[in-house]
Design brief:
alpha+beta, DNA Primase, Chain A, DNA primase DNAg catalytic core, N-terminal domain, Dna Topoisomerase Vi A Subunit, Chain: A, domain 2, five-stranded mixed beta sheet, four-stranded antiparallel beta sheet, 15 strands, 54% helix, globular, DNA replication, primosome, zinc
């Protein structure tokens, strides 16, 4: 929905930021000056005792000098209430006495219809609540009591009971003047295809209201009391009001709790969510009768960046976890992922909390595993990799899974983690032998290297990898983008893939990627705000940065583009070579790779070629990948490096 021009300006004029913020904080009367609209309080976004949160009522902005939270009334409501942009505007508009702009007639008609259906559903919720308290609800009350849900909890969750009566809710709502068509459209009753009389959908079941993020009743879920019932749990059908693939049980309260730093937990069903919430884990939700859908994943990520999926530890629970992983892999990105808390076999969250208490549940949440861990488990558990073919099949399966990740940076990090796990599986490290104890047999031809020699050689490899040179190149790239920000979009993918060498470089890289298209002055201000003036001054004070063409000639965009093309290509190749050198250094220490010398030659050859300034010549990388011979001079230079390494171990290698 678009807002007419001037609506937001009028809204900000009518509301007082001090009043909006004042609902969430206690003002520090000593520091605050209400007459000037200059107010101070402990920050509502992080725990603190001092008043570092400042509100300038006249300008309509707030800023925390502790956690650097900043914004206006709309952003404050969004962050504290954990709602979307339009919902925050609706909340503020109601407070200001402003009417939200009218929608088009069709949209308004649709909204009115949904309001009617929601009202019918709310009447049904109240009817079923009353039925729970009658003699017919005695069995349901006993069941809830055995599950640990006392009367106050039943009230909080509006739990009810549908008697085993074919026309209970229909008769009740008709007496209230509700049209039969609305009763059927809401999903409360079923109309036979043969044209017979409608009858109640929910019979002989404990009723759980399903509400949307705004708290409106949109459907019902029913738990059968009869153990022989065809379906243990029954949800309402898809209606104009209820889309089960886009809804979550306990959505609104969980969103609010997650906005107050509670961990968002995704459980399997109503009782698990209720048990979690009653035990203090109030940011708990559940899908509604279906496996988690893509739309529900997006809903979860709007609530919290890394929800924890809490599943039963049996075979079915693990299968469900794997389905979620397959669904999530193409969707994950920086700041949007999942973790998995696998329950002990035979227990769900409700059982675990009853048996061992909330502390046991918290421990499982703290130990929740990342997606890559379960992906690795799925591909390796119960399998034997005792032949090259089986190892190759594992590699193919893992490559296929990782290739589905759209974000190149995350895809690269998954590859690195899988590489580490694969190394551990196929090359298990032995404990260092004790003096006089059993000495593991060396592979044929492997050199005798003591730990000190291995450390020396690994250090030489690191020194030879050109890390210092790469750090200097990074500085030139950062300064060039800050000076020529219009080029960021052109090189964004390559720039994002770089692993920056220092904290300052990583921080500036993040700001540059977050604000593409800014002019140079604005970009510098954002870097100073996020990284500090000292970091920016230090970057541009370096001699090699000052003499770089993009900095010396800031008006020459074409020259800057050529320079960035060359420097990014060199960094990309050099960082790949450096990773190979690090693996090689580890292999020297563990004495496991018979092809070590070849790999060192290949890694350094690629680095030498990259240093020749051939820009984005794809042939350069293809030659490196295919292992073609390098020039005589480069061979001789690397032979000298190997000779130096060999000398440190007495010439054994």
């Amino acid at each position: 929905m678009s807002l007419p021009p001037g609506f937001l300006d009028e809204l900000r004029t009518r509301i007082s930021l001090t009043d909006v913020v004042g609902r969430k904080v206690m003002w520090d009367q000593r520091k605050s000056n209400q007459a000037k609209g200059d107010m101070w309080a402990p920050c509502p976004f992080h725990q603190e005792k001092t008043a570092s949160f400042h509100v300038d009522d006249r300008k309509g902005f707030y800023y925390c000098f502790g956690c650097h939270a900043k914004g206006d009334a709309i952003s404050f409501v969004k962050d504290t209430e954990n709602v979307g942009f339009m919902e925050a505007i609706e909340i503020l508009a109601r407070e200001a006495g402003m009417t939200m702009p009218a929608r088009d007639p069709k949209a308004q008609e649709k909204a009115d219809r949904r309001t009617q259906l929601a009202d019918v559903m709310e009447q049904a919720v109240q009817y079923y609540r009353l039925q729970l308290k009658t003699n017919q609800g005695a069995g349901a009350r006993d069941y809830l009591d055995r599950r640990g849900l006392k009367e106050d909890a039943q009230e909080r969750w509006n739990i009810g009971f549908a008697p085993d009566n074919r026309h209970g809710i229909i008769t009740h709502l008709r007496e209230k003047g509700v049209a039969e068509e609305l009763i059927v459209a809401s999903g409360l009753a079923i109309k036979p295809d043969d044209g017979g009389q409608p009858y109640d959908r929910f019979r002989g079941r404990i009723i759980f209201p399903i509400r949307d993020a705004r708290g409106r009743a949109i459907s019902l879920g029913g738990r059968a009391l009869d153990p022989n019932a065809r379906a243990k749990y029954l949800n309402g059908p898809e209606t104009e009001l209820f889309d089960k693939g886009r809804s979550l049980f306990n959505h609104g309260p969980a969103r609010e709790a997650a906005g107050k730093s509670q961990q968002l937990i995704v459980a399997e069903g109503y009782m698990d969510v209720i048990a979690l919430s009653e035990a203090g884990f109030t940011a708990a939700v559940a899908p509604l009768g279906t496996a988690i859908t893509e739309d529900q994943l997006r809903l979860l990520w709007r609530i919290a960046p890394e929800p924890v999926i809490a599943l039963d530890g049996d075979t079915a629970g693990l299968r469900a976890a794997m389905r979620v992983i397959d669904l999530a892999l193409p969707l994950i990105e920086a700041g949007k992922s999942l973790r998995f808390a696998i329950m002990p076999e035979g227990l769900d969250p409700d059982d675990l909390i009853k048996a061992q208490g909330a502390g046991a549940m918290q421990k499982l949440l703290d130990q929740a595993r990342p997606m890559v861990s379960l992906l690795w488990q799925r591909e390796t558990e119960g399998k034997v990799f005792d032949s090259p073919e089986r190892k190759a099949a594992l590699d193919a399966d893992l490559r296929a899974a990782i290739s589905r990740i759209q974000d190149p940076s995350i895809r690269r990090h998954y590859g690195d983690e899988i590489k580490n796990l694969r190394w551990t599986l196929f090359n298990p490290r032995r404990d260092a032998p004790k003096k006089g104890g059993f000495q593991p047999r060396r592979p044929w031809g492997a050199p005798r290297i003591d730990p000190a020699q291995a450390t020396t050689k690994a250090s030489l490899l690191a020194a030879a990898s050109g890390e210092v040179e790469d750090t200097l190149r990074e500085a030139v790239v950062l300064a060039a983008f800050i000076t020529h920000p219009r080029l960021i979009e052109r090189f964004e993918a390559k720039f994002e893939r770089l692993d920056m060498a220092t904290d300052d470089h990583r921080a500036m890289q993040s700001v540059i990627l977050a604000f593409p298209g800014e002019d140079s002055a604005d970009l510098r201000e954002k870097i100073i705000a996020d990284c500090g003036a000292r970091a920016l001054e230090k970057l541009f004070a370096q001699n090699h940065v000052q003499i770089a063409p993009p900095i010396r000639q800031p008006e020459n965009g074409e020259l800057a583009e050529l320079c960035l093309t060359e420097e990014l290509a060199k960094l990309e190749a050099a960082q790949g070579a450096r990773r190979e050198l690090r693996v090689a250094a580890a292999e020297i220490t563990s004495l496991v790779d018979e092809g070590l010398t070849y790999r060192l030659n290949e890694a350094n050859r690629a680095r030498f070629e990259a240093s020749q300034g051939k820009g984005e010549d794809k042939g350069l990388y293809e030659r490196a990948d295919n292992g073609l011979l390098i020039e005589r001079e480069k061979k001789e230079a690397f032979a000298a490096l190997l000779k130096q390494i060999q000398g440190s171990s007495g010439g054994d290698e």
